[in-house]
Amino acid sequence: VAMPILVSTITFAVVFFPVVFLTGIARFLFQPLAVTVVLAVSASYIIAIFVIPSFCAKFLKGVKTDKSECDKCGRVGFHVPPLFESWITKILKMRYAVVLGTIVLLIFATFLLMQTGTELFPQVDSNQFMILVRLPSGTRIEKTEAALEEIERVLMSEIGQPDPEYPKKERQPDSNMRILISNAGVLMDWPAAYTPNTGPMDAFILVQLKGKKGMPNTFEYVEQLRGRLNNEFPGIEFAFDTGGMMTAALNFGSPSPINIKVQGSNLFTIEEIARHVQRITSNIPGAVDVRIAQRMDYPQVGIEVDRVKAAQLGMTQEDVIKNVVTAVNSSIGFEPAFWIAPNGNHYFIGAQYAESNINSIETLRNVPITGASTTRPVPLRNVAEFYRATGPAVINHMNITRTIDVFANVLSGYDIGGVAMEMEKRLADSPVLELDRKQTPRGIVYDVGGEYDGKGYNITMSGEVQSMRSAFTQFVGGLGISMILVYLVMVAQLRSFSIPFVILLTIPLGFIGVGIVLFLTGTNLSIPVFMGVIMMTGIVVEYSIILLSFADQRVREGCPVKQAITEATWIRLRPILMTSLTTWLALIPMAIGAAGGEANAPLARTIIGGVLAATVLSLIVVPCLYVIFKRDKKDLSIEPIPVGV
User: Fold this and answer.
1) Domain 298-385 top-level CATH class
2) Whole-prediction pTM
3) Which pick of 78, 220, 343, 488 has the fewest CB atoms within 10 Å?
4) What confidence tier does 520 reach under pLDDT thresholds 50, 70, 90?
């Protein structure tokens, strides 16, 4: 079995070769896994060839073997139980019917696979979630804090009191809440880059659970709280993030898996388009927390500088702006100074007013303004007019183009891919938007038509959806490359064109099990599923190589084709069943997908389903395919190389 084991090991390693060319998040997630598996399989081959024979020679030394029986076996063949031989004979007589039935079964499994949803990565219960809270624009920080207190009371009534840090004896044993943290408003400084808040009306609440058995999980708590908070606080907008750091990485930092970007030159026009998108997508089943990220109605105070008056007083418009910025923020932004402490640390130094000093517009009117040519300060009201207005709290850009984001979460029980496709369909059918789909180097872009036609406005589906589609395309292409490489390796090793082709035809046998298992378990197509398909492909190919290499050797020794495949099926039955059984038993705990292990469950289920179907069907379909190609077609073989039994 040295040559079959070598060929199967090489083909198993070759299957993972395309993983090297993955890009994006899929590369960082699965390249280490692929390298680990290849190294482990290579090490197992070395152990099987060099270590196991030594152990057998040492520990099985006392077992006697009848040499005459071995010689007889080599001359006339191997003993096959009559019942098994009769069963194989009946199958071979109906070989075309068996192949046709397998094709029908494959079509059925493909249909089941099409009914499953799609997602980039399975949802993982991280025992924590974040609630994004948005009050009406212009709400003062005091009112935001008061609203947070009421929201916290609702959270504690649903989950329980959080544990205090000290002392430990005061911890809440009956509560499922470990930590509760609320953050309101935003500092007008560098820390503003690290918070989802855009002003005093925004807040977020972090909740960490204990994950007690018998208590609701993260997703169940979120469903309960979503309904209750929206009912009790109708004037407040809520959004939930259950993903944690993993989902944030998959979403490229987006707080939701679905991110629809509206781009164009005019900020208020793209805000109008975003409102249409929000209204349409909010009515799609499975879509929740649909919201526009950017605020366009943030209260503002405009200052119109009278340049003539300023010039008469010896100052420029720039002088006025710098004094106002110093009053409401700091001079560090335009005139930074540095101070190096004795310990080597660098510090910015700038002038600024105490925040409590600027507490009204009247105070701002009296801010003293100085210039390079002024002899004494002048109140701001002497050189500027004040007016109230509304405008964007923040302006986002992507590729230098102004962008407004529409975020949406997906309810439990719905798949991200299905919800995103329904969104695209309804947006494309909208008579207001009249989207025109086109493929670009950065992905699928929808040009906005209708009254916005020809004005350069477009919509793109970003976030996890974009990553998912890119990763799926890469995996499908990689799987095709794997099949070609596997075939070429087997042609070189087995010195035959037909036998490797028969082996490749057995790969769909595993897909039958994959489709059925994913459908029955309600598992969505995801990156772990595709990784499981690649691993399953290598395992299925191994079974066929072990089976057909033995049958091909018997044919070369002069044995009839049907007898050769019958002997091969019987002789290789035990090794195939043993390897399959060990695979199933090893993956069953992972396939259960307990709390925290949801990410690996799809991979395990895929391998179990594929290996289970391939094990059963390879003992039925592979003999039929072998006989068809060996007897009904001319075998395209190269000069044979002896293969050891």
Assistant:
1) alpha beta
2) 0.78
3) 343
4) very high
